[in-house]
Amino acid sequence: MSLTGILGTILELYGWVILAAILLSWFQVPSDHPVGAIKRGLAAVTEPLLRPIRRVLPPVRIGGAGLDLSPLVLLLAVRLAASFLT
What we know:
By secondary structure, this protein is mostly helical. It has three helices and two strands, in the order ααββα. The longest helix has 23 residues.
């Protein structure tokens, strides 16, 4: 397997991690619950790349709530990078 193939696979897997983090962010889970540990692990992996995007792209206000679009932007960027490599 070539280096570009390996990098493409890693990016595809990271895309799935981002998607899992997005889905778990919709649910309130106690920190002592096993799913809470998974949620913290996913946040530890995704937050370093989401933080700079959030600085540039603030949450979109919808009524009284804010919609964070940074995970979607990161997911699209990762998928595009993976498609260029594979």
